[in-house]
Amino acid sequence: MIRKVKGTRDILPPESRLWNEVERTAHRILGGFGYSEIRLPLLEPTELFVRTVGEGTDIVSKEMYTFPDRKGRSLTLRPEGTASVARAFIENGLGQRPQPLRLSYFGPMFRYEKMQRGRYRQFSQIGIEILGAAAPAADVEVITALHTFLSALGFDDLVIVLNNLGDPEDRDRFIEGLLSELGPHRDELCGDCQRRWTENPLRILDCKVPRCRELVAETTPVAEVVGDEARAHVDEVERALAELEIPVKRAPRLVRGLDYYLRTVFEVISPELGEDTVICGGGRYDRLISDLGGKPVPGVGFAIGEDRLVEVLPESTRARVLDQRIVTVLPIGDGATGPAARLARELVLGGAEVHTEVTGRSLKACLKWSGKMDATAAVILGEQELADGVAVVRDLRHGRQETVALGGVATAVIDLLEKSD
Ligand code: HAM
User: Fold this and answer.
1) How far is the CA of 294 from the centre of ligand 1 (A)?
2) Distance of CA 174 from the midpoint of ligand 1 (Å)
3) pLDDT tens, 271-314?
């Protein structure tokens, strides 16, 4: 037997309905905030992520699916979406469109990570990016859109944590301070952090090794050393969110695992999954597009991990989505196939989920099958019924049935489904 690749998943029905609902809600709410979908390739030149996410990050240094194509060019299965959005912005001249540009994206990302609950090698993100807006109002909009989307899905216990990473100039000063504070303990840091020390010291702050965490906890947080402009920017974001009654918590030590961020960074944490399994991450990246060779275009956005979001979907939302109202259409005998297909079409257009019997089973077997499918109603089209121009509509939840003229069957069934809500 051939098995799926480690870290990938089959999302089976009815679980897939939850995904459909999350995506429908995202299109409705994020679309409502003006974000339109950009469909990006899954394959990108490796260089794109090396230059944006950063060479010293875990993602680039150990998690990418990178391979040469048949002509020897290095390709990577995208580990995230923001770099592709920036590339597409430059390549398609999207700076020519009215600014700011609001984009959303949906789909799989790939990271070669250690498998655990909520951590997969192929996972899906739902993201938005607003490009061409430097003011704090853009950060506020993005976080408001996020909060509105999560509320629409019934979440009320998620925590948004926020930090200020400062500008790249502040970052250099911060790193200098960090290294001098950690200096006396340098040899106590883990092997990875020894490498980070020279390659990308900021990443020492993401290290999960307990001793490294302890040492980092003693250092001055990044938010304390940021310059005046960056400070005013993020303070304004926080003030405006408070005015909107969107609860955010300052997390002075929050850094994100990608190099392109500056000023505002944020994450969403679920009490159920804990701090290490973040539901959503985002922030501002005003130098990303210019670092890729474009004009200086500021940007801010986020990406939600859809796998994780679905895993912690509130019970009431789950129940609402998974509550199916199925009707089975049961033609008994040869002549009934055509009328059954016609009725099925009418029911589908009326909004029902129809499962038509197509295997030639007996009436008894059909009713047993309807029960297993947990159908709400069954419509029986037997020879005698068809001769009389009627069908039997059976209410499977209450074990009642009535004979209805063929022309009125669809209405009777839809009524019955609605009443069973
Ligand atoms: P990120 O924090 O690397 O940010 O990923 C965003 C979200 O993707 C995470 O919060 C998590 O929910 C989900 N995720 C990441 N890795 C995995 C995994 N192995 N398994 C399951 N879910 C995972 C970004 O990707 C940025 N591009 C976000 C952004 C957009 N910043 C600005 N704009």
Assistant:
1) 24
2) 25
3) 888 877 899 999 999 999 999 999 999 999 999 999 999 999 99
